[in-house]
Write a structure and sequence with these properties.
This protein is of the alpha/beta class and 164 residues long. It has eight helices and five strands; from the N terminus they run βαβααβααβααβα. It has a five-stranded parallel sheet with strand order 3-2-1-4-5.
């Protein structure tokens, strides 16, 4: 039986910086919608410290910085042994044939989303999306990895009252 997604209006949402990239497609309107809902505090976005750091890079588009930087973010001085082990389990799944450490940042983003109680992690990273099933084995069952389009399908079902 498939697990019913949680109401995105009532839970924390983690977001990879790439999920808010403007690319000249229909997704741009979803990015604008996401930003509007976040600004209006309809959505509670919690940004992993690593994502926040990536967004602060000088080459990051201003619209992405404007979307991510004002959000609640997770900042901590260090990781405990349990958190390090969690990241390692996630990293092993993401690594595949890539070199060691290549996907450590992505593993950290996903683990931080889990640690901060996020019900959704929005990304357009193909490697993360292609490994959702394997990642669900090591991440909490409450965390769902989605694209921005998938997120809004769920959000719109709740808004229309079809998922109460």
């Amino acid at each position: 039986m498939a697990r019913r997604p949680l109401d995105p209006r009532k839970c924390n949402i983690g977001c990879d910086a790439n999920a808010l990239d403007l690319d000249g497609t229909a997704r741009d309107s979803l990015v604008a919608r996401f930003r509007g809902l976040s600004t209006a505090m309809t959505l509670t976005v919690v940004v992993a410290d690593g994502v926040r750091g990536e967004v602060q890079h000088p080459n990051t588009p201003e619209n992405v910085k404007d979307s991510i930087l004002p959000q609640i973010f997770n900042l901590r001085p260090g990781l405990n042994a349990s958190q390090q082990a969690e990241r390692q389990r996630v990293q092993v799944i993401l690594q595949g044939n890539a070199g060691p450490g290549k996907h450590a940042a992505d593993a950290s983003h996903l683990s931080e989303a889990a640690e901060t109680g996020c019900a959704y992690f929005i990304t357009h990273d193909k490697r993360v999306l292609s490994r959702r099933d394997a990642l669900s084995e090591v991440l909490p069952p409450s965390l769902t990895i989605v694209t921005l389009e998938e997120f809004f399908e769920i959000f719109d079902e709740y808004e229309a009252g079809r998922r109460e």
